């Protein structure tokens, strides 16, 4: 049976495992990330206080946001905020805490969320975007161009541990996988940093989420299929 490597956190893989098993793959789970609350996350509190809208781009950003801010503010204060989220999983994290998104993008990417929200809300407002230590600033300038006050703050750290790197090297050297699935650009970059340094014995098939990740994979000389 063909084997596919899933690179996100094990707890996030249930839906993807069902999808790839239906395609005839056996799923191998080896996360290429570790997440933890950012030590200086509390410096973001003032920016959050001033914002009308809060943007949450993953279920993890939602979870760390709640961990940090519910310890500092009353629930009624957070209920006054407006939330824009990516995908059903992020919305569910909020809903379990008793908070509900005011905007949920159809696209499961940051670019999709930003683009769709900007198309719907023209009146200038204040926005706070809690993000990971790896998140880039692409597409953020579009908010200021449209007159919005857009602030960001690092709420959680995203690391690639030495143990995870060694485990990935072992999988690749043993030629035990036929395909790899990436749910973010950073996961591809971490994989490629290891993959490009070894003498791969087999050609791998790549699956990913989002056009941005697909484009970067293709620029590296490989083909990637966007998971539907």
TrEMBL record:
Give one Pfam family.
HEM4
Domain called Tetrapyrrole biosynthesis uroporphyrinogen III synthase: residue spans: 17-224
Membrane spanning stretches: none
Catalytic activity reported: hydroxymethylbilane = uroporphyrinogen III + H2O
Tell me which Gene Ontology terms the entry assigns under biological process: protoporphyrinogen IX biosynthetic process; uroporphyrinogen III biosynthetic process
- Keywords annotated in UniProt: Lyase, Porphyrin biosynthesis
Which EC number(s) does the record attach to this protein?
4.2.1.75
What family is this? Belongs to the uroporphyrinogen-III synthase family.
| Name the record gives this protein | Uroporphyrinogen-III synthase
Q: Which organism is it from?
A: Candidatus Enterococcus clewellii
């Amino acid at each position: 049976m063909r084997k596919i490597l899933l690179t996100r956190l094990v707890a996030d893989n249930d839906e993807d495992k069902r999808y790839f098993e239906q395609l005839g793959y056996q799923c191998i789970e080896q996360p290429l990330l570790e997440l933890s609350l950012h030590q200086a996350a509390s410096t973001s509190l003032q920016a959050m206080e001033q914002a009308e809208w809060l943007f949450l781009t993953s279920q993890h950003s939602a979870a760390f946001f709640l961990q940090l801010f519910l310890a500092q503010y009353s629930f009624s204060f957070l209920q006054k905020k407006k939330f824009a989220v990516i995908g059903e999983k992020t919305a569910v994290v909020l809903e379990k805490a008793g908070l509900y998104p005011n905007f949920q993008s159809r696209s499961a990417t940051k670019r999709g969320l930003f683009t769709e929200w900007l198309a719907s809300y023209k009146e200038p407002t204040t926005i706070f975007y809690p993000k990971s230590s790896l998140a880039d600033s692409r597409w953020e300038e579009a908010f200021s161009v449209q007159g919005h006050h857009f602030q960001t703050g690092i709420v959680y750290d995203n690391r690639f541990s030495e143990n995870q790197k060694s485990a990935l090297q072992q999988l690749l050297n043993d030629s035990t996988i036929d395909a790899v699935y990436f749910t973010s650009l950073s996961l591809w970059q971490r994989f490629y940093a290891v993959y490009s340094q070894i003498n791969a014995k087999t050609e791998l098939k790549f699956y990913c989420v989002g056009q941005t990740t697909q484009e970067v994979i293709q620029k590296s000389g490989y083909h990637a299929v966007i998971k539907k």
